[in-house]
Specification:
- The protein has 342 residues and is of the alpha/beta class.
- The protein is 36% helix and 23% strand.
- The protein has 11 helices and 17 strands.
- Strands 3, 4, 5, 6, 12, 13, 15, 16 and 17 form a 9-stranded mixed beta sheet that branches.
- β9 and β10 (199-200) form a beta hairpin.
- α1 packs across α2 and α6 crosses α11.
- The longest helix has 27 residues, at 54-80.
- The chain is elongated.
């Protein structure tokens, strides 16, 4: 089954054999043996690579789960035994990979150089959840998954702000902006923006304030959207962490504040490297929150259970955002966010 999964992922017998470090003839022999066992062809040769037959498409999800579960089991056993080295597979959203996670990944490499990290990036929260459920990674970092049976650890909440160019009139604001004030502004939108109740998230929020948002341009990636906002193409709803990745971005808070939760979750109990990585994410959030006077520190995470929210690692997607109306936003000046390392 491992050979079948490799051929499907590489779309080539040759590349799959190289990845598995076996000869192509040995790979073909094992695939044929598997096909005899299941009673039919699983793969078919196409003009450009290799594809799945109908029987192969039915077989593949179960094969993937079996192969990846075996990998997870081996890594969990090594972690429980306190083995040195090893590897850790992290699944996350593309926006988190460019925004909030780099400081955590850099710290991990400094403190645990013998544990190799593999980062799997996805564009949507649904895709992330589905692939983690199929055993792609040891740990996921992203919005809270719905109806998840494994452990979920809250990493806190983060506020989403409006990102504008330096010469935008909003850049001079000394207080939060109300959404109703933006009725005549054009927005940079992401095509993968969450849909809530059949309505795109920003459309839904603006409708609550009596208008429909104007669209300046739609893009796929958060990094592209921020660059366009900085260039003055339109305004953007984005987390501070993603804005920090682009020099010249100005973040303006919204009133009532928009907040979202970020979590770490897995299929099995968090142990070893996966648990330590989760703790490191929360510690990174505590340091960021510590710059604000009087900010309380969150409780330490508990493996195998959901934990209450605290200061966040930073989640730059728009998944699971909810307007916070329980208390008014605190007035604060808009700030030009420097590029990382400046």
């Amino acid at each position: 089954m491992e050979y079948l999964v490799a051929v499907v992922e590489e779309r080539s017998f040759t590349r799959a054999a190289e990845t598995l470090n076996v000869t192509q003839s040995a790979l073909s022999h094992q695939i044929k043996a598997l096909e005899r066992e299941v009673g039919g062809n699983l793969l078919e040769r196409l003009p450009r690579g290799v594809g799945l037959t109908p029987m192969g498409r039915a077989f593949l999800p179960h094969a993937e789960l079996a192969v990846r579960s075996a990998g997870l089991a081996r890594r969990a056993a090594r972690a429980a035994a306190g083995a040195e080295g090893g590897e850790l597979h992290i699944a996350t959203l593309h926006a988190l990979a460019i925004g909030a996670l780099p400081p955590v990944l850099a710290r991990w490499r400094r403190e645990f150089p013998d544990v190799r990290l593999h980062l799997h990036e996805y564009l949507t929260a649904d895709e992330l959840r589905d692939h983690v459920d199929r055993g792609v990674a040891d740990l996921a970092v992203g919005p809270r998954p719905e109806r998840w049976e494994g452990p979920v650890v809250s990493l806190g909440t983060e506020e989403i702000m409006i990102v504008v160019a330096r010469d935008d009139p909003l850049a001079e604001r000394t207080r939060p902006v109300r959404l109703s004030e933006l009725a005549d502004r054009a927005w940079v939108r992401c095509v993968l923006e969450p849909v809530i109740g059949g309505q795109r998230w920003l459309d839904r929020e603006c409708a609550r304030h009596g208008f429909r948002p104007l669209t300046a341009m739609e893009v796929q990636h958060a990094s592209t959207a921020v660059r366009l906002a900085v260039a003055g193409v339109g305004i953007l709803a984005c987390s501070v962490e993603v804005a920090r990745a682009t020099a010249g971005a100005v973040a303006v808070p919204v009133e009532p504040a928009w907040r979202q939760e970020l979590t770490a979750y897995a299929r099995v109990e968090l142990t070893g490297a996966a648990l330590r990585f989760t703790e490191m994410c929360r510690e990174n959030g505590r340091r960021a929150e510590g710059s604000a006077p009087g900010a309380p520190a969150p409780e330490a995470p508990r493996s195998g259970a959901s934990t209450p929210g605290g200061p966040a690692l930073g989640a730059p997607t728009l998944s699971a955002i909810a307007p916070e109306t329980a208390a008014p936003a605190v007035d604060r000046a808009a700030a030009v966010l420097p590029a990382p390392g400046r």
